[in-house]
Every structure is written in structure tokens, then in C-alpha cells.
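Practice problem: predict the structure.
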Amino acid sequence: MAMKKRWKITPLDKALQDKLVKDLEILPLTARILINRGLGDIERASAFLRPGLEDLHDPFLFKDMDKAVRRVEQALAKGEGIAVWGDYDVDGTSSAALIYLFFKSIGHEILTYIPERKSEGYGLNIEGLKGLGAKGVKVVITVDCGTSNHEEIIAAAELGIDIIVTDHHEPTSRALPAYAFINPRQDGCAFPFKSLAGVGVAFNFIMALRSRLRESGLIAGKGPNLKRFFDLVAIGTVSDMVPLIDENRIFVRYGLIELGETKKPGLIALKNVSGLRPGTLETHHIGFKLAPRINAAGRIARADRALRMLITENTAEAEAIAQAIDEANTSRREMESHILDEALLMAEGILKADTGERRAMVLASENWHEGVIGIVASRLTESLGLPVVMIALDGEMGRGSARGVKAFNILEGIKHSSASLIRYGGHRAAAGFSLSRDKVGTFTEQFLSYAGETLTAEDLVPEVELDAAVSLKEMSLQAIAEIERLAPFGMANREPLLCLRGTTVMDTKVVGGRHLSFRLTEDGARARGIGFGMAGMQGLGGAGFSLAFSPYRDTWGGAVKPGFRIREVSKTSDVFST
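Answer:
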């Protein structure tokens, strides 16, 4: 379904651009992109270009951090059982692996627990805690979960288990009865950066714990080199789509290097089945290759298999699990494709039958797997340009996943309809919920009514946010090298998107079955571009094209030259807005 899009070039602050160019000795284009990212201050821009480990914050600024590490110190001194309890997604799995491997590196084996998604659900549960208690566990460290588990934490205390919560989800208004609560978003927490992933909070915990155990003499010398864990931290951080600024930027910057050189058998095996060659990796390799495979284990198989892969020292075991996870990912993709096709047909039928303008879409089916509908809802939102809610029905219950658009807070929409729900949670862009089957109709009516009152037709026109208009001649290898210094790219630091205006497309050619190769010319300069998934546009040619693209260093064929990843194509100039 083709949609009209609005192209918008971020306005230029020439005076500020000139100052950055002079003080930082960078190209005007680099300065402009920094300003577009809110980095017009010289000190902040300089730190952004040169992120270092010395810029990490003091982990003891977290509320309850001192209390938490003292409890673990006590448990280690007494020989008490310790367990880590994670979530079944990539952030939770990588966090659990991080905690487990840290304790192993200081000579202590701890237990791990990842709940089964369908039968146990998210977070702590009493039966699982009873099982750990029966094995002698006295301290449970949660990672990427626990903030909303008030009743379960009370039950744990009655079992003689102290719960240390490390999490990053928004706290409720109720005080959490945990032994220690480490969450940067809670009231009274002095830690300056609030947007860590769960694995970032867990890493701060082991930083503080290593420091304390050094002081007490429970570990010899400096203890383990924590840089060896940055590969796991990068995977969890990128997969959870938190802003890649401040500590997250440092974690991912160093983590990508560590991931490229990792000695962990599980990550080596995972990279191999993902088709990744040795060498430098980028965030998209995590987001589109590694993370989906780890996620597949939690979505349609068991997440504890992925955890086992991440922590094993046995190469054969790692390879066997990685192969099984890769097969689960293939099944997940096939399932996702079938669900997407069915959902698109349903949506098209609804749109054809509509008498008025639709502002959102709610779909439900008994044929859908609850572990996959969130991914499909995201794709459907991109295709339709509407907020989308998908509900997987199973017996008398339904599980929903919702995805929003830029102008619409999806969580507020869910809250507005919460009288029909059993439970819900999420954030501005994505939310999940559960409800009984007989409430689906009421929920749909309430949600669509709220979206209709909140959104206008103009709100639903997707915007292509461009950093600058450039010429082919400007895109030198020096310019691309400076842009690469802005990496890693992700949330709050998106990959720069530039545009060419009035460019001639000499010809196009389908490559790899799905992609389109472009030959471009402009004022005597020539270049090649690649449009991934654009094979349907074959036959484009002529003068006057506008192209939105991200630049990169193209090393294909051995020669290094400027490359252009084409994202959007327009033959008309009226797509631009002021």
C-alpha cells in the first residue's frame, strides 16, 4: 500500500554550524548533523565524537546500590545460594548471561531462571521462586524485570528470599517491597542517565559489585576485566531500542568492537549461523541478525536455550543451540509472513468497507501466535501509516500488541480503553495487554473512538526527516569518514539521512532478486546507489529525481568509494515541506 510522504529538511543554524566547524575542525555537513541531534554545544559535541570509558557514571549514584552489593557480599561470604531471574527477550537474556558470567569469573556458580513466555508470563512468579528456594537460594537478582512484582516479592520474603531488583521499566506509584530496588527511573535515584536498557542497569550493578568485592578482599587483584562483557551489553542495549546517547552510546561503541572479537563460544556460533563474517560489526547486524534469533527462542521456543548458548564454554553445545535457534528463527519468519499476509487482507477489507476516514486499526484472530504479533503490528503500522493493535485469541483470552505512529501515544490510547483490559503496559511507541475474548468488541470501539478524536488526517502523513540537501560532489570519503564518527546509530541518534535534488537516474538494474542498483549523475559527477527491497521500481530513469539516502564506504570489488543506500525516491518536488 503506497503512501504519500512528506519530506522535511531540518532548518540550518548557520552561525552555530560555523562555530562547530571552526572549534572542532570538522566539515560543515558533520556540524549540521550534530546540531540536528541537539549537540550544538561545543563540549557536548566534542564528547559525543570521542566517547570514552571514563565518561561512565558512578554506579553508586543509583538508589539502593550500596545496599544491594552489601547483601551480595554477605551472601558470598556465608556461601548462600544466589540466582539471577531474567526476562525472555534479548535484553533480559543478555542481562542474565552478564550476571551469571560475572559471578563465574569470580569463582562463584549461581543459578539462572528465565520464565517460559506462554505458561509463566513476564516477571517473577511464586512457583518459580518456590523452586529456587527449595534449591537453597537466599538472594534473587532480577534483570529487566521485577518493578511491577509487588505480591511476588512479598511472597519471596516469606520464603526467606531477598529480592534485588535491577530494572529499567517505569515504576508504579506503589513502593516496591524489594530488599533493594535499582532502577534509574524511580523517585529519589541520583543516577543522571535515565534511559538505560535492563542490561545497562545490570552492568552498573556488576561495576559496583566488583568495586565492593575488591575492597572486602573477596576477589583478588583488580578482578575480571568488565570490557569482556561489553558484547552482551551491546546486544541487549541495541535490541531494546533505547536512545544511543550517554552511557548507551559508550556501551554500544565498545561493545561492537568486543562483539567482533568475542571469544564466547555462543556468540561465535550465533554470528556464524547469522552469516556474519569476522570483523567490525554495526548496530544493524545486532538488530537484524543476532537479536531476532535470540528473540525467536523466547517467542516460539524457550528463552533459557538462548541463555544457555550465551553462557556455555562448550563449543559443540554452543553450535548445536545456535543451529536450533536459527531454525526457530526461520519458523518465526515463516509464521510472521503468514500472519502479515492475513492481517493485510483483513485490513484491506476493513478499509474498503469504511465510509469515513480511519485513524487506527484493530485486528483479532485465533490463528496468530502471541509471540509474533508485535513484530507484525510494527510492519503493518509502516504499511498502513496507522496505529495498529493486533490481538491473538486463545480460548476465552486474548493477548494484544499495539504499535503507534509519531503523532500518537499508543499507551495513552490503551489506557483510555483500559476498563476492558485485565492488564496492560508499554510506552509511547509500543504497548501490550491482555483481555477476555468477550471484551474485544468493547475495547475496539473505545480505542478507535479515542484515535478518531485524537488524530487528524495530517497527523497520519509519514514524514521523511532529512538532515541536509547535498550534491554528489560533496559526498567525499572524508565526509563519510566524519559521519562514521557519529556512529553507533540507533534511537535518538538515527543514521544520517541526506537528499539529492534534481539528480539524473541514468539507469537501474535489479540485483539479488529484490534490490535495485542505481547509476546516478549530477553536474558531471557520477555515483552508484543501492535501494534494498526496491526491485519493484525497476525502470526508473531520467532527470529531476529527488533521492533520500544514507552514505557509507563502499568496499565492494576492493576499491573504496562513496556509497549511497537509497531510502526514498520521488520524481516530484512537491514532497518537500517547510
